Amino acid sequence: MATREALSIIKAARAGESKAQLALGSRYLYGGIGLPRNNGTAFYWLERAAQQGVDDAWMMIGRNISYEQVKSLSSPREAAVWYEKAFDAGIAHAGLTFARLVLEHAEQFDDDSHARAIGALSLLAGKDNHQAQWLLAQQMQMRSQDRESGVDSNVKAELPDSFLKLEERLLSEAARAGIEQAQYALLDKAWKKSDYAGFSRGAVALIGKLLQRNAAAVAQMEKDVDVTSGIFLSAEESTLLLRFAQWRLQAKTPDLAEIRHLLELAALAGNVEARLELGLLHAKMDRNGNRVFMEHGLANFKKALNWLTLAGDGGSALAWHALARIHSRSIYSQRNLNVALQYLEKAADMGLLEAQYAFAQISWRNRRDDQLNDVRALYWWRKAAEQGDENARAALKEFSVEASPHIWATHAMAHLNDKFRNANPFLSARLELAATFGLSKPEALLIDVKNADYGHCLVVDICGYYARSKRRLVSIETEAQRSVLNRISRLFSDVDCSFSGLEGNYRQRKYRLKTAFSEIGCLSLA
């Protein structure tokens, strides 16, 4: 309960007396005269005193209120003023808070503030302040990434090129000083540079800490029971476990039990790639579908399917592809080719090149089982070709306009005039369609325009009207082809293209073509 002294100070502070505000902020900061310690309330009164020119107030803010506390108590622009003043007055860690307020809320500050924040970090880093070294190294990394990507950074302060060369040294010094964020960043750089020896040396100690922190979960894994203990891992920690397990898998005689524990920890923490790796490990299969580690016992498909399904649901196309492979193999007791195709299509939908080409091949082989399988095959060949697959490009050549040229329509188009187009709009449209997509005369006269367009291809199927024809597809490859087809489709949108429609049967259409070209003096084309 507040004492009489505290009540008098509170009353004076509320009345606007700066000394009372300073005293009240100090009491809340350290406790005393019946008031509880409360950094939020302390900051409120100290800031009000600082705004009235009380130097001791911003000195107390800079010395006692951390960045984690102040970021939720005040706007970065307002708070940064007090920390910069405290840093200029000699409070070193106030400089760190000032720099973080500016650099982590870059959009709220001008270029001059950015420059001062970088200057503060540089000064502290030069005095072996390891936290400052880590923060400065982060800024250098951001600048390097922005230069590589060509995207403007929010960090607008100019960093000299010489600073960029210091990044590795600053990062190393911060890591050696025990700043875990710097250690993880250093390991990430080593992994991306394929420095696996350096990665493994630095990862061992961190891996030990993670295993110790999650000892209860590891113990349950060793007993091969469901893990019910909480998993305490951040995203970067689960990534470290995944990478360390991937590195250990490359050993001549890998310890699969240890690797499985590492992957399961990361998988339980939500790491999608770890779930994929764990599922493949249980299935005794690599990413290319080859069987591995068969000398270590039989595959556990129940666990494999569980982890691969979780990985697939998390966005891994490779997981769906792996599930498709498992369901299509005779070694799996519940082999189901229909289920395998469903998983393969999911992988293809997510952009996996191998799945797209494989699904196209299967669809084409089974085109007689489903009338639309050839359309699906062409679609997925096209998707694979867009990603650079040469086999898919070779397969698509058979469906191009050049593969079956019928130049009769091109010659016919050269003889058309406005009078003919106005008198025979549907016939003119069919001739233009034939010239654009290389159709024969029967195909041009009989194609059902409304139902032939499948977006990526034109389905030419007149077998029901012309027995000597053969169903085929023509790939729509250019914007000009698409534009022509769209325009002609609009013309035929309300037209019955069957023999009962206004165009009549095949004999009538053929006669109309012959008569029309006779009238314009082009008998050879009719």
Top keywords for this entry?
mainly alpha
What's the short version?
This protein is mainly α.
User: What is the general shape?
Assistant: elongated
| Total beta-strand segments | 2
Structural class: mainly alpha
Tell me the number of helical segments per DSSP (H or I, 4 or more residues long): 29
Percent range of helical residues: 55-70%
Task: Enumerate the strands of the largest sheet in spatial order, edge to edge or round the barrel.
Answer: 1-2
Rounded to the nearest angstrom, the distance between the terminal CA atoms is 107 Å
Roughly what is the average pLDDT, rounded to an integer? 87
Rounded Rg? 36 Å
Uncertain runs with pLDDT below 50, 5 residues or more?
151-157
- What's the main sheet like? 2 strands, antiparallel
Strand content: under 5%
Question: What does this 3D model show about the protein?
Answer:
- The chain starts with a helix and ends in a 7-residue tail after the last helix.
- Residues 151-157 have low confidence and may be disordered.
- The chain has helices at residues 4-14, 18-30, 39-51, 55-64, 67-70, 76-88, 92-103, 111-126, 130-149, 161-176, 180-192, 196-213, 215-222, 235-249, 256-268, 272-283, 301-313, 317-327, 337-349, 353-365, 373-386, 390-396, 408-414, 418-423, 425-437, 441-446, 449-452, 479-491, 506-519; strands at 457-460, 472-475.
- It is mainly α.
- It contains 29 helices and two strands.
- Strands 1-2 form a two-stranded antiparallel ribbon.
- α3 packs antiparallel against α4 (55-64) and α8 (111-126) packs across α9.
List the topology elements.
Layout: H1 4-14, H2 18-30, H3 39-51, H4 55-64, H5 67-70, H6 76-88, H7 92-103, H8 111-126, H9 130-149, H10 161-176, H11 180-192, H12 196-213, H13 215-222, H14 235-249, H15 256-268, H16 272-283, H17 301-313, H18 317-327, H19 337-349, H20 353-365, H21 373-386, H22 390-396, H23 408-414, H24 418-423, H25 425-437, H26 441-446, H27 449-452, E1 457-460, E2 472-475, H28 479-491, H29 506-519
Antiparallel strand pairs: 1-2
Helix pairs in contact: 1-2, 2-3, 2-4, 3-4, 4-6, 6-7, 7-8, 8-9, 9-10, 10-11, 11-12, 11-14, 12-14, 13-15, 14-15, 15-16, 16-17, 16-18, 17-18, 18-19, 19-20, 20-21, 21-22, 23-25, 25-28
